[in-house]
Amino acid sequence: MIQESLSLLAVFAHPDDESMGMGGVLAKLSAKGVQTHLICATRGERGWFGAEDQNPGLRGLGLIRTSELESAAKLLGLCSIHFLDYLDGEIDQAEPVQAIGKIAAHIRRIRPQVVVTFPPDGNYGHPDHIAIGQFAAASVVSAADAAFVDGEDRSPHRVSKFYFMVDSESFVNRLAPLLGEITFPMEDHVRGEVPWQEWMVTTRIEMRDYCQTAWRAILCHKSQLASLGPLADLEEPAAIEILAMQGTFYRVFSMVNGGRDIEDDLFEGIK
Ligand SMILES: [Zn+2]
């Protein structure tokens, strides 16, 4: 039985990460009375904009994507969004202590039992995803440390459960015919999806009933839909079928439970 005082903080890099990555889970938790909060490190200023003559500029695209995220957040029932205001594509150049201090201060203010972020592979190698995942991990540790000064002088808070949002092999395989391979080009190599083996998944959330909401939240990110290719053109029922395969997580640590059994709730073990 989920209680009203439960809260979750998701720490991601760009507007749309929340809807595309775990929209169904966020919608379900919000509907069950969990307070869901989002830290978004950038405003997605370097996202898709089509032809060069349609380029709204970094600030312009950032504003568009901020308002798209606000619409999606309303559908998903998020309680709050906090931007760290790093520039899209430059999170890994952020000054680490400052970035960790900002996130730790949010953790100490929101006091979530559960924090979710990107796994070490950034889902498909995106350096922003990898960087924010590392900062989030350091922030969870720092927020609990009484000796850590966050700049806002807040009291320590120990997160009970920390998760990576992972893409399972079956989900990646299902997506492949629609999206092709999801890759991220670097200067000297191309990165791609590293699907998590089914046995590596510690937590599977059933949230099919909330995937219609998740799909509509994805569609709020209008400026970015062209980058989704045929996926964006799916009829709602087909999109729901695919989104229902998400909800897979890796439990990095838990202060309240353990073992090999697959969890079906991010708050399992929290009374
Ligand atoms: Zn992203």
Order of helices and strands: EHEHEHEHHEHEEEHHE
Cofactors and ligands present? Answer: zinc ion
Let me know the largest β-sheet.
7 strands, mixed
**Beta-strand residue percentage:** 15-25%
The residue ranges in which pLDDT falls below 50 over 5 or more consecutive positions are none
- Termini gap: 9 Å
CATH superfamily: LmbE-like
Q: Strand order, biggest sheet?
A: 3-2-1-4-5-9-8
Q: Tell me, what's the shape? A: globular
**Secondary structure: number of strands:** 9
- CATH level-3 fold name: Rossmann fold
| CATH architecture label name | 3-Layer(aba) Sandwich
Rounded radius of gyration (Å):
18 Å
What does this molecule look like?
- The protein is α/β, with parallel strands linked by helices.
- The chain has a single domain (7-252), classed as Rossmann fold.
- The chain is built from 8 helices and 9 strands.
- The longest helix has 20 residues, at 57-76.
- The mean pLDDT is 95.
- Zinc ion binds next to loops.
Provide a short characterization of the protein structure.
The protein is of the alpha/beta class and 271 residues long.
Descriptors:
binds zinc ion, 8 helices, 9 strands, two-stranded antiparallel sheet, alpha/beta, Rossmann fold, globular, 271 residues, single chain, seven-stranded mixed beta sheet
